[in-house]
Amino acid sequence: MKIAAETRTRRAAWTKSKLRPALRNLHFNLDTEFDNESGHLLAVYLQVRKGRAAEVLELTEGIAYANYNSGGKLLGIELLGPCKIQVLDQISRNEPRVIKEFLKKNIPAQMVG
């Protein structure tokens, strides 16, 4: 039993050391903007990393934008209206699973069309 416990400990340490660079600097935040008169959701920003945007890609004309830092890492996604879930899948395709899950689980239903 002691050998199995030591193996699990080493495996956990190895996994953490391998994942740490990919998960470094993650910062999850969800900002929303509502119309003051109607209460309708106008915009959502899903932040996955802190940083300054060096590039903004328009993914769905006038609706979905992805912000990237100078190293090409996704900083966040801004939605100004409903978009297809495939757009989020496309944006997060090369991101760690934790980012994919954050995006899918936290996007308001009104913003998925």
Short synopsis of the structure:
The chain has 113 residues and is α+β, with helices and mostly antiparallel strands. Helix content is 35%, strand content 31%. It has helices spanning 2-23, 85-91, 97-106; strands spanning 26-34, 41-49, 55-60, 64-68, 74-79.
How many DSSP-defined strands? 5
Calculate the terminal CA-CA distance, rounded to whole Å: 52 Å
Count up the domains: 1
Strand order of the largest sheet: 1-2-5-4-3
**Largest sheet composition:** 5 strands, antiparallel
Low-confidence stretches: 1-17
Strand content: 25-35%
Structural class: alpha+beta
Output the helix-strand order: HEEEEEHH
Oligomer: single chain
Apparent shape: globular
Mean pLDDT: 83
Helix content: 25-40%
Tally of alpha and pi helices: 3
The radius of gyration is 18 Å
Please give a structural write-up.
The protein has 113 residues and is α+β, with helices and mostly antiparallel strands. It has one domain. The chain has 3 helices and 5 strands. It has helices at residues 2-23, 85-91, 97-106, and strands at 26-34, 41-49, 55-60, 64-68, 74-79. The chain has a 5-stranded antiparallel β-sheet, with helices on one face. A hairpin with a 5-residue loop joins strand 4 (64-68) and strand 5 (74-79). The radius of gyration is 18 Å and the shape is globular. The termini are far apart.
List the helices and strands and how they pair.
Elements: H1 2-23, E1 26-34, E2 41-49, E3 55-60, E4 64-68, E5 74-79, H2 85-91, H3 97-106
Antiparallel strand pairs: 1-2, 2-5, 3-4, 4-5
